[in-house]
TrEMBL record, chain A:
UniProt biased composition (Basic and acidic residues): 1-20, 60-90
Entry's family note: Belongs to the MON1/SAND family.
Domain FUZ/MON1/HPS1 third Longin: 468-574
Domain of life of the source: Eukaryota
Protein name: Vacuolar fusion protein MON1 homolog
Polar residues compositional bias, start-end: 22-42, 585-595
Role noted for this protein: Plays an important role in membrane trafficking through the secretory apparatus.
Pfam families: Fuz_longin_1, Fuz_longin_2, Fuz_longin_3
Domain FUZ/MON1/HPS1 first Longin: from-to ranges: 177-299
Organism: Chanos chanos (Milkfish)
Automatic annotation (TrEMBL), chain B:
Keyword Iron appears in the UniProt entry: no
EC number of the protein: 3.6.5.2
Subcellular location: Cytoplasmic vesicle membrane; Cytoplasmic vesicle, Phagosome membrane; Golgi apparatus
Entry keyword set: Cytoplasmic vesicle, Golgi apparatus, GTP-binding, Hydrolase, Lipoprotein, Magnesium, Membrane, Metal-binding, Nucleotide-binding, Prenylation, Protein transport, Transport
Name this protein carries in UniProt: Ras-related protein Rab-20
Cofactor needs: Mg(2+)
Organism of derivation: Chanos chanos (Milkfish)
Cited InterPro entries: P-loop_NTPase, Rab20, Small_GTP-bd, Small_GTPase
UniProt xrefs under PROSITE patterns: RAB (PS51419)
One Gene Ontology molecular-function label: metal ion binding
Catalytic activity: GTP + H2O = GDP + phosphate + H(+)
Region Disordered, residue ranges: 250-274
């Protein structure tokens, strides 16, 4: 909810601030951009050195990216929020005695709540103690667990490498981003690094923290220390925690945790997770997720390395529109009752997607659901000769019901072109497999695989702007393609962003720009960031969101000029870069049966009922 | 249970279906599998590894199975379909679909894990209710390499020289000429336990012990890691389902009756939450 508000805020600002002249016609762009940059300086000049001073800052001075919170100094900082009150009113309770530079003991608390009850001042002190303990735990996660974890990790047979990782080591602590999932009862469910057993005491402390704050009718949201941001998120009976030194914003970390939660839901459905814990509060959910850790591991790696997650948009493979159309037509012709989505993927990027008419009217496929599907495909690709038939829930579509996904590669043994067919009928495997046979045949006769093999991401040099090194462009919904899948386009990362470290560094810069653009306290429309090794320009309008990376020598004027050219180029290439008009077919004559939840209530989720009880 | 998802077929849906069926050109029909084999068992017992060892002659760290994976194996002139499952079947209720019409079911456990054998009876046996009435059952204790020295050398399944293991062993380690075989783990399930389970499976299915294949023949201890007994397992089963293949071919000569074709096509399941 909070997020929605934020976004409205941003869009509103865009609307009021920007005259309708902001159509991407060439002349207006540069004027508009110049004007926005200068007005931006004016609007946000109060205390934002990150924005204004950077413009004039010496290029040699690389500023460390700082979290947007004002007090990102040595102080630890705890924010809580009253659950019933959607609006966030921040009230900062400073504890002067503690706010010295001594980082171990220094905390400041900001609690937002609807009542200014003085009880919470007392609890505040207690939370500080808890927090200090949490911090201790965090530093010495091993200290507390030393006795058992070593033994326990030793006995875990056949676990993949990082699950075996010794949680007492410095190396374990140094991971950039830890993610933990636990149940309300404090039972470990998932840990990105190290085995859950070895971390059970740590998770216990996290849970104690969560439930303590809860008992005061607040929800713990985040803890800041000088090096780490700890973000808590509770969804139903699950608590998710991110411990990050990546300097990402709380909102970004929260979005990532939501991906993790949704991936779990995609395997179990929200309704059955709720039901399981209703029956047995301390159920060990790992019994159901065993074997799925790799899917979550894979997701978190993707989240770190693939900007699709940051932008909540889908990256599609550039393709001549005639070829994309012909692929769509092939999919459109290979249908069977209850088929709702046909998706073709190459090199982990979307080639085309065809949706059932009724479904598309009812709801579009959310990009993040597609990301979860793509991650699942990636995780199951080890054994590529087979055809997979699996129940899968699309949490943003309906968190309580399953679709049945058919997954098969069309080009063994290379296995780069993947077909994904989603049906609402769990018995439809053979019928859906038959659709694949048809698709395969049609693609063969049109030689589509050869054409697809030639398709590849593009080089930024094709844009023909000398100082431009990389960009990400995400158009927003426009009225005539309202149900369109949110997409973005971006060239390959090329020199100097070739090594994994450099790629990550550029992504981190983008993430920082993104968090400042979307800051809840002070959303920005435009950031011109001069750093030592590159200059970045991020710009959000009512039509698009754009992140660009230039060589450090670029001048503001030439950057503006470059963006004008870039937008012109994208406009010219848009048929190739995006799926313009997502095609449809009709297979379900009775749409109300296949559509979103909420309508039918609990009895609609019974497909998960089989066997839940025997498991408990 | 099933009733809950069944929906009265509306006339328009029937029309739709008919149309789809009639426009489907015969030439695009897939090679119909002659027979179906399903591998069941708890997660991590090594189902995927067994199948992988058999079909790809390799042991590698497989990635977790999602749902069920369908494979077609050419066995002489026959097409044998094999379903590898994830081990969560009774949770989402797809188990009966994977098992429908199966001619053989491989119930897999991990010899180092007693619970994995118990789960077969508790959670997986009931999924086989939809299997063919003359279905053959095999009980397979995998990871025998962890408990039995003789299973550490391959007897089948692509020979001893599996790439990964071989690589590890030929790594130059001057100080330590031959890496000692990994210490044996406690074997939690004996072959007798498995054979006793086999007897209970027959009773559950209402099959005669006398007319069914004997327990000694149908209980296997395997290692997907070394290949021990893996080929034996699959090939014994393939041989044993031959009669069903022939029977099915005879029956299916001209009729369209197909065990694989789900009964669901008559009673359409509409919608994931309907
Ligand atoms: N030592 C040993 N490990 C095995 C064997 N078979 C499988 N594994 C390991 O057990 C784990 C689970 O295997 P997998 O095939 O994914 O199990 P599934 O969930 O039943 O499909 C993996 O880490 C495998 O490497 C075996 O025969 N011996
Ligand atoms: Mg498996």
């Amino acid at each position: 909810m909070e997020r929605g508000n934020q976004e409205n805020g941003i869009r509103e600002e865009v609307k009021t601030d920007e005259p309708s002249s902001l159509k991407c016609t060439d002349q207006t762009v540069s004027k508009e951009l110049t004007r926005t940059i200068s007005s931006e300086n004016h609007i946000n000049s109060e205390d934002d050195d990150a924005l204004v001073d950077e413009n004039g800052m010496k290029a040699s001075q690389e500023r460390p990216l700082e979290p947007q919170t004002k007090d990102s100094t040595a102080d630890n900082h705890l924010e809580t929020e009253a659950p019933s009150d959607g609006r966030k009113e921040e009230e900062t309770v400073d504890l002067p005695a503690l706010s010295s530079v001594d980082s171990a003991g220094a905390h400041s608390l900001s609690i937002s709540e609807d009542t200014t009850d003085s009880i919470h001042d007392d609890s505040g002190e207690f939370v500080v103690t808890m927090l200090a303990r949490a911090k201790l735990e965090e530093q010495g996660m091993g200290v507390k667990g030393t006795s058992s974890p070593l033994l326990e990790t030793g006995t875990a047979v056949g676990n993949p490498a990082h699950q075996d990782e010794d949680v007492t080591t410095e190396r374990w602590r140094q991971h950039r981003k830890h993610v933990f999932v636990l149940s309300e009862a404090g039972k470990p469910i998932y840990s990105r690094y190290g085995s859950e057993e070895a971390l059970s005491s740590t998770m216990g402390v996290m849970m104690a923290l969560v439930s303590f704050v809860q008992s005061g009718d607040n929800i713990i949201r985040s803890v800041y220390s000088d090096e780490h941001t700890v973000v808590f998120m509770q969804r139903g009976p699950l608590v998710l925690v991110s411990v990050s030194s990546s300097r990402q914003s709380e909102q970004q970390l929260r979005t990532e945790l939501l991906y993790v939660y949704n991936q779990i839901v995609s395997m179990l459905t929200q309704a059955s997770i709720a039901r399981i814990f209703e029956h047995k509060k301390n159920y060990d959910l790992r019994r159901l997720l065993a074997g799925s850790e790799k899917i979550l591991d894979g997701l978190l790696n993707l989240v770190d390395s693939d900007p699709s997650f940051l932008l909540s948009a889908v990256h599609c493979l550039p393709l001549a529109s005639s070829l994309r159309d012909s692929l769509s037509q092939i999919l459109q012709k290979a249908i069977t009752p209850n088929l709702v989505f046909s998706i073709l993927i190459a090199k982990n990027q979307l080639l085309t997607i065809v949706q059932e008419k009724m479904v598309i009217d009812d709801a579009r496929l959310d990009p993040s659901d597609l990301h979860l599907l793509l991650n699942l495909i990636g995780a199951s690709s080890a054994f590529q000769a087979g055809e997979i038939w699996t129940p899968i829930c699309l949490p943003n579509f309906n968190p309580d019901c399953y679709f049945y996904a058919y997954i098969s590669y069309l080009d063994p043994p290379e296995c780069t072109v993947c077909l994904l067919l989603l049906s609402t009928d769990k018995e439809a495997f053979y019928a859906v497999a038959e659709c694949k046979r048809k698709i395969e045949e049609a693609m063969q006769s049109q030689n589509s695989l050869t054409a697809i093999a030639k398709a590849q991401s593009y080089s930024v040099s094709q844009v023909g702007v000398s100082d431009l090194r990389h960009f990400m462009y995400k158009p927003f919904d426009v009225p005539d393609n309202y149900r369109q899948l949110t997409q973005f386009t971006s060239p390959e990362m090329e020199a100097p962003y070739c090594s994994e470290e450099e790629k990550m560094r550029l992504l981190d810069l983008y993430r920082d720009m993104h968090s400042r653009i979307h800051s809840s306290s002070r959303p920005l429309k435009l950031i011109y960031h001069v750093a030592e090794r590159e200059t970045l320009l991020a710009w959000v309008t009512s039509k698009f969101e754009l992140y660009t990376c230039f060589s450090p020598l670029v001048t503001k004027a030439s950057a503006i000029n470059a963006i004008t050219k870039l937008l012109r180029w994208i406009k010219k290439e848009e048929d190739r870069l995006f799926i313009r008009y997502p095609p449809k077919y009709s297979t379900t004559p009775n749409p109300s049966k296949s559509s979103r939840g909420g309508k039918g209530g609990a009895d609609h989720t019974d497909s998960t009922d089989n066997g839940v009880l025997p498991l408990l | 249970m099933i009733i809950k998802y069944s929906v009265v077929v509306s006339p328009s849906l029937k029309a739709n279906q008919r149309q789809v069926t009639t426009t489907m050109p015969e030439s695009t029909k897939m090679k119909k599998p002659d027979v179906k084999i399903v591998i069941l068992g708890d997660m991590n017992v090594g189902k995927t590894s067994l199948l992988h060892r058999y079909t790809e002659r390799k042991f590698k760290d497989t990635i977790s199975t999602v749902g069920g994976a369908f494979f077609l194996k050419q066995w002489g002139p026959y097409n044998i379909s094999i379903w590898d499952t994830a081990g969560r079947e009774q949770f989402h209720g797809l188990g009966s679909m994977y098992c429908r019409g199966a001619a053989a079911v491989i119930l897999t456990y991990d010899v180092t894990n007693w619970q994995s054998l118990a789960e077969l009876e508790d959670r997986f046996l009931s999924l086989t209710d939809t299997a063919s009435t003359d279905c053959i059952f095999a009980i397979v204790g995998n990871k025998a390499d962890l408990t039995d020295p003789h299973a550490q050398a391959a007897t089948s399944g692509g020979g001893q020289a599996d790439a990964e293991l071989g690589g590890v062993q030929t790594q130059p380690l001057p100080a330590c000429p031959t890496p000692p075989a990994s210490p044996l783990l406690n074997k939690q399930v004996s072959k007798e336990d498995a054979m006793a389970l086999y007897g209970r499976v027959l009773r559950y299915k209402g099959l005669e012990e006398k007319t069914s294949p004997p327990a000694e023949k149908m209980c296997f201890e395997t290692s997907a890691k070394t290949g021990y007994n893996v080929d034996m397992l699959f090939e014994t089963l393939f041989d044993m389902v031959l009669p069903s293949i022939l029977k099915k071919r005879r029956e299916g000569e001209n009729s369209t009756v197909d065990l694989e074709e789900s009964r669901g096509s008559k009673r359409t399941k509409a919608g994931c939450c309907a």
